[in-house]
Amino acid sequence: MNQKRNRKSLCFIGYFTFVIMLVFSLTATSFVPVADAAAGQTLTLDKLQYFKGESITLSYTGAGANGTDWVGIYKTGDVPPGAGVSLRWVYLKSGDGESSLSNGLAPGTYDALFMLDDGYEIVDRKTFEVVERVPVNGVTLDQQDIILSEGETRILTAMVTPANANDTQVSWTSSDPAVVSVTSTGDSASASLIGNSAGKATVTVMTSDGNFTSSADVTVEPELMLQSLIESAQAKYDAAVEGNEDGLYTPGSKARLQLAIEAANGIANDSNATKEQIDIAKTELRRAIQEFDKKRITADVNGDGRISIGDLAIVAGGSGKQQGQENWIENADVNHDGKVDTLDLEMVAKAILQ
After folding, report:
1. Least C-beta-crowded within 10 Å: which of 18, 250, 298, 308?
2. Which positions of the chain have pLDDT values less than 70?
C-alpha cells in the first residue's frame, strides 16, 4: 500500500515539475525577445539645439521589420495620444538608420519620441531646443594702435555685435608671429599678444559667423633705456592735439601723460635710483603712454580703415549705454567719456562728411 502511495507521489511530483518547466519555457520564449528589442531600440539626435528652420537629423537602432515604428516630435511635457497629433513625424526603416525632419518649429523645447508599430509605446526620448537665429553683423577691437616693448604682453579684446548673436566665437591671427605672437585666452573673445622682436605686425580677429574682421596695428620697440622712453613719450605729448574731433585726443589727456613723464624724469635724474625703481618707472611710463593712446578719438569705430555709415550704426546701437552696463560697446564711446550719447554720434557723422 505504501509502495503504491509512493509511486503516486513520485508521478505527481514528476508531472508537477514538467508543468512548471513548460510554463517557464513558454514564458521565457515570449519575454526575452521583447526585452532584447527594448534594450536595442535607441534614438540619438545630432545636436541638442537647432536654429529655427534647421533640419533635425536623428539616428536610431532596433526599428521593427514592419516599417511602422516611428519618431514623433511633441512639445516637452506633452504625452501622446492625449497630447494630440505630433508636430513632426517620420517612419523608421527596419533595423538601424538615420533620418531627417524639417524644422519649422517655433522657438521652444521639444521631445523626440521613438514609438512602436504606429502606436504610442515610447521606447526612447530625446529633448532638444529650437532657437531663433541671431546672426553676427560685425566685430570691433578695444585697441587699434598698440605699442609693445620686446617681451611685453598685452591683452586685446574683441566685441562681437550684436551681443545676443548665437555664435560669438572668433579666431586670431598675426601677420608676423616672429614680431608679435597671438594666443586666444579663455572664451576666445580676448587674446594675449607678446612682443617677440622689434618690428611691425597686424593682429586680426575674425568671427566664425559671417567672417567679419577687425585689425590692430602693433609696433614692437626694442627694450629702451628709461631716458629713451621718456624722450619717446615727450615727443608723443608734443605732437598730440586735444579736441573733440577724429584724430585728436580727449581734453585733459595730455596733462595726465605729462605727470607720468615728470615722475619718470625724477627717477632718471636720481643718481641713487635702484634698478628696481628704474624698472618700475619704465613700466609706469609705458602704461601711461598706452592709456594716452586710448584717449585718441577715432571715428573709425569698426577698425576697417574707413569712416562710414557702418561706424555710425555701431555707435547708434550702443547709444544710451554707460560703461559697465550690459551690452556696453567700448568703441562706440568715441570721445572716451564713459557713455555713448549724441556727442559720439555727432563726431562720427562729422567725420563721414569731411
Report:
1. 18
2. 1-39, 186-187
